[in-house]
Amino acid sequence: MAERERLRRRLDDGLAALDLDLSGAVRDRLIAYVELLARWNAAYNLTAVRDPGEMVARHLLDSLAIAPHVSGATLADLGSGAGLPGIPLALIAAERQVTLVDSNGKKARFLREAVRALKLANVRVIEGRVQDVPGQFDCVTARAFATLADMLNWAGGLLADGGTWLAMKGKVDEAEIAAVPAGFRVERIVALQVPATVGERHLIVVRKA
């Protein structure tokens, strides 16, 4: 119980810094997700972050820092890995349909277990390549997944007209920005302030040209 209280305090402090007002029930489910990730991580090595307290900062808060930029009724999280940022974003917006995509079998198994354990009725998991995902989405997220050019060349067709592609990056690489393929434009680059973390974090917002 003391460990859960430690995690909850860290989450509460981070949400306050991000100016996100979430219900107690949602906060509890976010902590439950971290606890589940920590248990699975011991056996499956899903993330290099081992300490659950660090998971709160580097995974939950990092994911939730982009929440103000997410819009639309449908979201695809490409290269979702352990469900980041897709699961935290799904937990805070139950009305949004979220698709988690990853080609790695063990990560997809964890994602399916997280959907079951957290009762995420608004989430589905696709185990496969991003190139093979059907349909289009109002918002597409990708966290340190590949270069912008590769992501958009592989899966740019998943972005619906008027939709928003949100690429989460550390430092901004100007060469990477310049290499965005025809048909897309970088609308803005947002410097993210993620509580309790060090290093640069940026969100690159892309739309169809």
Write the SSE topology:
Layout: H1 2-18, H2 24-44, H3 52-64, E1 74-78, H4 86-92, E2 97-102, H5 105-117, E3 123-127, E4 137-143, H6 148-155, E5 159-169, H7 174-178, E6 184-191, E7 202-208
Parallel strand pairs: 1-2, 1-4, 2-3, 4-5
Antiparallel strand pairs: 5-7, 6-7
Q: What are the salient characteristics of this protein?
A:
209 residues, 7 helices, 23% strand, Rossmann fold, alpha/beta, single chain
Report on the architecture of this protein.
By secondary structure, the protein is of the alpha/beta class. It has a single domain, classed as Rossmann fold (3-Layer(aba) Sandwich). 40% of the residues lie in helices and 23% in strands. It contains seven helices and seven strands, in the order αααβαβαββαβαββ. It has a seven-stranded mixed β-sheet with strand order 3-2-1-4-5-7-6, sandwiched between helices. α2 (24-44) runs antiparallel to α4. The longest helix is centred in the first third of the chain and has 21 residues, at 24-44. The radius of gyration is 16 Å and the shape is globular. It starts with a helix and ends with a strand. The model has no long low-confidence stretch (mean pLDDT 96).
